[in-house]
Amino acid sequence: MAEMNLIGLLAEQSRMAGDMGALARVAAGEGSDGQEGAASFSAAMMDAVRSVDADSRVAGEKMADVDSGRSDDLVGAMLMSQEASLSFSMLMQVRNKVVGAVDDLIKMQV
Predict the structure, then answer these.
(1) DSSP class of residue 62?
(2) Record's GO cellular component, any one (predicted)?
(3) For 64-94, what is each residue's pLDDT tens digit?
(4) Longest dimension (CA), the chain
(5) Closest residue by Cα to residue 55 from 78, 93, 88, 96
(6) CA separation for the pair 67, 60 (Å, rounded)
(7) Rounded distance, CA 63 to CA 46, Å?
(8) Backbone angle region of 81, left / alpha / beta, with phi > 0 → left and psi within -120 to 50 → alpha
(9) Cα separation of 55 and 52, whole Å?
(10) Domain ranges of the chain
(11) What angle do CA 22, 105, 107 make, to 5 degrees?
(12) 32 burial type by CB count under 10 A (0-12 exposed, 13-18 middle, 19+ buried)
């Protein structure tokens, strides 16, 4: 049981690392033109927000199942809760970096 949770956690970590790499490539402007790059960055951010929201909802459902007695997988619920928390933290870090970059651009003298 614990091995299965560990494998799932490692797979999720790998997926998140891939998502962050894709965001970094989009932020670096590796698109064919500006409009496509802007649209793909927006799409990547929306996908990240949806993924974090889905993780949070699943974690909430698992915790509710444990609380109500429908499930006895407390470890799985706690792992999912921590995973959702980590996903949200990473999303906030990306948001803070983007806001900081926009602030730096606004402060630049032309």
Answers:
(1) H
(2) bacterial-type flagellum basal body
(3) 999 999 999 999 999 999 999 999 999 999 9
(4) 62
(5) 88
(6) 10
(7) 26
(8) alpha
(9) 5
(10) 2-107
(11) 155
(12) exposed
Rounded to 5 degrees, φ, ψ at 70 are: -75, -20
* CA–CA gap between residue 13 and residue 106 (Å, rounded): 34
Distance CA 33, CA 9 (A): 36
pLDDT (tens digit per residue) in 15-57: 776 776 666 666 666 554 555 556 788 888 899 999 999 999 9
pTM score: 0.62
Whether the Cβ atoms of residue 22 and residue 37 lie closer than 8 Å to each other? no
| Closest to 56 in 3D by CA, of 80, 75, 20 | 80
- Find all residues with CB under 8 Å of 24, minimum gap 6, and list them: none
